[in-house]
């Protein structure tokens, strides 16, 4: 194989790996709306401790008594660990209050800013840095 073909093949492989990485990780503004803060109260039903972002699933009860499941995006597992949150910090079934920002597509997904436990302990979820608002959410509870 000639040197030019090796360089071309290496370039294609490198470009393909960067495309896959850019699809896997996103800036806050790509998926979440900084103008749509929300507060959700519910019980944790599932935790996904995965890269590039951990996900906390909570079940909320709406005013009419129906239930909805929401996916709350946190920081990377490593970021959360540095902030004192690990995958055993919050047990399934724990009632939490989440300040965050609604997904732009208005699905039941949000970017989490803070989690507050029943004890009043507040934990920063390590929101996706780029484009994330600096202040916590100030919204009425849903």
Sum up the overall morphology in one term: elongated
Beta fraction of the residues?
35-45%
Report the helical percentage.
Answer: 10-25%
Distance linking N and C termini: 62 Å
How many distinct beta strands?
A: 6
CATH fold-level assignment of the domain at 27-124: OB fold (Dihydrolipoamide Acetyltransferase, E2P)
Description:
By secondary structure, this protein is an alpha+beta fold. It has a domain at 27-124: Nucleic acid-binding proteins (OB fold (Dihydrolipoamide Acetyltransferase, E2P)), CATH 2.40.50.140. It has 3 helices and 6 strands, in the order ααβββαβββ. It has a 5-stranded mixed barrel. Residues 17-24 and 136-142 have low confidence and may be disordered.
Spell out the blueprint of helices and strands.
Blueprint: H1 3-24, H2 28-31, E1 32-48, E2 55-61, E3 67-73, H3 77-82, E4 95-103, E5 109-117, E6 122-124
List keywords for this structure.
142 residues; alpha+beta; five-stranded mixed β-barrel; 3 helices; disordered C terminus
Q: Nutshell version of this structure?
A:
The chain is built from 3 helices and 6 strands; from the N terminus they run H-H-E-E-E-H-E-E-E. The chain has 142 residues and is α+β, with helices and mostly antiparallel strands.
